[in-house]
Design goal:
Elements (H helix, E strand, L loop, with lengths): L1 E5 L18 E5 L8 H14 L2 E2 L6 H4 L1 H17 L4 H17 L2 H9 L3 E6 L2 E6 L17 H8 L8 E3 L6 E7 L2 E6 L4 E4 L4 E6 L23 E8 L4 E8 L2
Parallel strand pairs: 1-2, 2-3, 5-6, 6-10
Antiparallel strand pairs: 1-11, 4-5, 7-8, 7-10, 9-12, 11-12
Helix pairs in contact: 3-4
Length: 252
């Protein structure tokens, strides 16, 4: 069984044309489908529905249909302004984007967003696969919402909601793999196309982003390579061979 794994499209519908056209692939999307452009977001939503993609919602999807999620952006903006840190203006833009999408997407598209859960658990190829946009710890500790180093990965492996063999995550826009085996956690960050063999143990797999890659040297110096990177990425999870491959595509 082979799975196409992708995340963080942010309305960039043209990236979908870069994905392999293979009817044998089970398709998993890890959220952040929407962005401020209703046309692009609408095209992405229609494609996901038409392809029968198994989806979870992301931080930019839920506020489009959920007042509580929209309020969270507002609360975070106010908190950053009070504390004089971060980028509260960006959070204000996210709120405006969500409200615009709420007004301009059609009823079926909004219904589709509402139908996406925050987490899913599926059994494929004899493995229990969990899906979440950010991380199991995101609602308890925002500093661990992006799984970007061994310490954060270890904390998420230890979360009681992580009960599967493989956890698929997005959110960070960084393609990577964490493996937990016999108390040790190891890391693979992909700075180019590559493949890892899935051995014994549990795994956290991130396919990167179909919008753009990001750099987080504060959390992981190895991500600095993605500064100004114009490539997009997706993953192929082969449960028959026991491998996870990350593919890079340069946008033209």
């Amino acid at each position: 069984m082979r799975c196409l794994v992708f995340s963080d499209i942010h309305g960039r519908a043209e990236s979908l044309d870069l994905l392999p056209d293979d009817e044998g692939l089970v398709k998993f999307c890890l959220g952040d489908i929407c962005a401020g452009d209703p046309e692009g977001a609408g095209r992405v939503l229609d494609w996901l529905r038409g392809q029968g993609v198994v989806c979870v919602s992301g931080t930019h999807d839920r506020p489009v249909v959920d007042d509580g999620a929209l309020a969270w952006f507002r609360e975070m903006e106010e908190r950053l302004r009070r504390e004089g840190r971060g980028n509260p203006g960006l959070l204000r833009r996210f709120q405006k984007d969500a409200l615009r999408l709420r007004r301009e997407l059609d009823g079926e598209q909004l219904k589709y967003i509402s139908s996406m859960p925050e987490t899913r658990t599926v059994t494929c190829g004899g493995r229990v696969i969990q899906m979440i946009h950010d991380s199991p710890l995101a609602r308890e500790d925002l500093t661990k919402s992006r799984i970007l180093n061994v310490e954060i990965a270890r904390a998420n492996f230890g979360h009681p909601s992580f009960v599967g063999d493989i956890l698929l995550v997005g959110h960070s826009h960084v393609p990577l793999v964490y493996r937990e085996w016999e108390g040790e956690v190891t890391e693979t960050v992909f700075d180019g196309p590559g493949r890892v063999e899935l051995l014994e143990g549990r795994y956290i797999l991130n396919p990167g982003s179909l919008q753009r890659l990001r750099s987080y040297p504060r959390y992981n110096e190895r991500t600095r390579v993605f500064e100004g990177d114009d490539r997009v990425t997706y993953g192929i999870l082969d449960l028959d061979e026991g491998t996870f491959e990350v593919r890079f595509i340069k946008l033209v």
